[in-house]
Amino acid sequence: MRMKLLPAVCGAALLAAAAAMPASAGTLQVNPVLLEINAGRRTATVTLRNQEAVPVTIRAYPLAWRQDGGDESYDETSAVIVSPPIFTIAPGATQLVRVGLRTPSVAPQAYRLIIEEVPEASPTDGIRVALRLNLPLYSHLRAGEAAALRWTSWQEVDGSWALEAVNAGTGYVRVNHDAAQAATGLRLGDHVSFGTVLPGAARRWRIGTGLDVSDPARFRRIARTQDRVGAQASRD
């Protein structure tokens, strides 16, 4: 089964947190928010703490993570073992979840670990939104440099502008607004959520119909249509 565009986080902005720091989503504390398996670490662990006054039942499972045609793709996978896959955490208690490869391999791979709350069948306190977290899991895959990204921008037929980053390196690159703005010469609003670009892959974003160009010369270098860019930059 393939799922497209699964939200990176539901309930908390976990991906903005540092990997070594705990993060809270609703009433569940998660630490760390980035998992790694490498030569010195055959399994990864994540600790969940229930900060609610009632027990919480959690389901945890892996997905294979790819980036196709500029979009995120997630597939069911049996390559990763999660233990325990379902559990209940008492109020104030913690639960350790271990993640490992079913067959040890040094081939670089990217996965996601989904941690979701199993909702009550009959909640007593009205409508309740179930927690769902989506954590990156890297197997023998290291962080790369922002310099490995090759940026391109173009205008679609509907007049909106697209921005694409191709990762030419061997490590994953986490893109933030400051790095994207410095590389493109654009001022980009908070409505653009960048995320991570996997090695050898591309990510694509729609940035709207109006451009806020802070560095016209830099933007011209990444734009496919020079005449449109020149006309746009002259208005800034």
Tag the structure with descriptive keywords:
236 residues; mainly beta; Immunoglobulin-like; 2 domains; eight-stranded mixed β-sheet; five-stranded antiparallel β-sheet; disordered N terminus; disordered C terminus
Brief rundown of the structure:
The protein is mainly beta and 236 residues long. It is built from three helices and 18 strands.
- Sequence stretches where pLDDT stays below 50 over 5 or more residues: 1-21, 226-236
Q: Helix and strand succession?
A: EEEEEEEEEEEEEEEEHEEHH
Major sheet size, sense and barrel closure: 8 strands, mixed
Give the overall pLDDT as a whole number.
84
User: Considering the protein shown, what is the CATH homologous superfamily of the largest domain?
Assistant: Immunoglobulins
CATH architecture of the largest domain: Sandwich
- The CATH topology of the largest domain comes to Immunoglobulin-like
Number of domains: 2
Strand content: 35-45%
Approximate helicity band = 10-25%
Q: Taking Cα atoms only, what radius of gyration do you get, to the nearest Å?
A: 20 Å
The number of strands is 18
